[in-house]
From TrEMBL:
CheR-type methyltransferase domain ranges (all copies): 1-266
Classification lineage: Bacteria, Pseudomonadati, Pseudomonadota, Gammaproteobacteria, Aeromonadales
Source species of the chain: Zobellella endophytica
Keyword Ribonucleoprotein set for record: no
Biological role: Methylation of the membrane-bound methyl-accepting chemotaxis proteins (MCP) to form gamma-glutamyl methyl ester residues in MCP.
Keyword Transferase assigned: yes
MF terms in GO: protein-glutamate O-methyltransferase activity
Signal peptide feature range: none
Pfam short name (any one): CheR_N
Example of a GO biological process term: methylation
Top EC category: transferase
Entry-linked CDD domains: AdoMet_MTases
Domain of life: Bacteria
Protein name according to UniProt: Chemotaxis protein methyltransferase
Length: 266
């Protein structure tokens, strides 16, 4: 297996920044080599430079999307950072749901654990009341996985047992060892491929936007551009939620801090 040379790493680094706004640190060189190495073997290529030239020659082809998927997929799990779901259930939802659908956007949904966690929270709090949930990611591969809503049972450890039994089906036979989010809940989520570093499609306005565990990969200028692009989609009085490891300090002058990682639009 060829090694990833520094100049080759820089090619991928600059391309990923242009394409997705992700600023890879030098410490991510091994990650890039590991995730793309299988594609070199698949195509029988002798170097990472050859693979880079292959995806650039496609100009939007399937292999370019595969490379983008491999380099932008992040680890996630159900009900990650549970205080956000507590805040949503206790502080936000009781004041909404009167006269119009409650709308939430999971703006970097990865393989679906976050939007399904949100969907369970919404279903519990609002019952049959109207609500809508948009879930987006730049990766088509993880969106396909999210749309299926099927996960290994080991991924269920952070789901409350009552919610697991109410909203998920345990696999049997060939599906043993997995669980499936029930169809009624899956159908309430609209999964979309959206690049936050490009002009956003018409997706309407939202009461709450979750943008968690993605801006840690952006430099300050990219963070400002992404937030400026998203903010018009947040309704006045709406909440903008980032991860506990992130902050909008110096990023936005519009949003007001409610508590660490939770902001509100005046």
């Amino acid at each position: 297996m060829p090694s990833l040379q520094d100049e080759e790493f820089q090619l991928f680094r600059r391309w990923l920044y242009r394409s997705a706004g992700i600023n890879l640190s030098p410490g991510k060189k091994a990650l890039v080599a590991g995730r793309l190495g299988k594609r070199l073997r698949h195509h029988g290529l002798g170097s990472y430079g050859d693979y880079f030239r292959l995806i650039m020659a496609e100009r939007g082809g399937g292999e370019l999307q595969t490379a983008l998927d491999l380099l932008t997929t992040n680890e996630t799990y159900f009900f990650r950072e549970p205080r956000h779901f507590d805040f949503l259930r206790q502080q936000v939802l009781p004041a909404l749901g009167r006269g119009r659908p409650v709308r939430l956007w999971s703006a970097a949904c990865s393989s679906g654990e976050e939007p399904y966690s949100l969907a369970m929270t919404l279903a519990e709090a609002l019952g049959a009341g109207p609500w809508e949930l948009v879930a987006s990611d730049i990766s088509s591969r993880v969106l396909a996985q999210a749309g299926r809503g099927q996960y290994p049972l080991s991924r269920a450890e952070h789901i409350d047992t009552r919610l697991l039994h109410k909203y998920c089906l345990k696999g049997v036979g060939e599906q043993e060892g997995s669980f499936l989010v029930e169809r009624r809940l899956r159908q309430r989520i609209r999964f979309m491929q959206i690049n936050l570093n490009q002009r956003l499609p018409e997706i309407g306005d939202f009461d709450v936007i979750f943008l968690r565990n993605v801006m840690i990969y952006f430099d300050l200028d990219t963070k400002r551009q992404v937030v400026e692009r998203i903010l018009p989609r947040l309704r006045p009085g709406g909440y903008f939620i980032v991860s506990h490891s992130e902050s909008l300090n110096g990023v936005s002058e519009v949003l007001r801090l409610v508590q660490p990682s939770i902001y509100r639009k005046p």
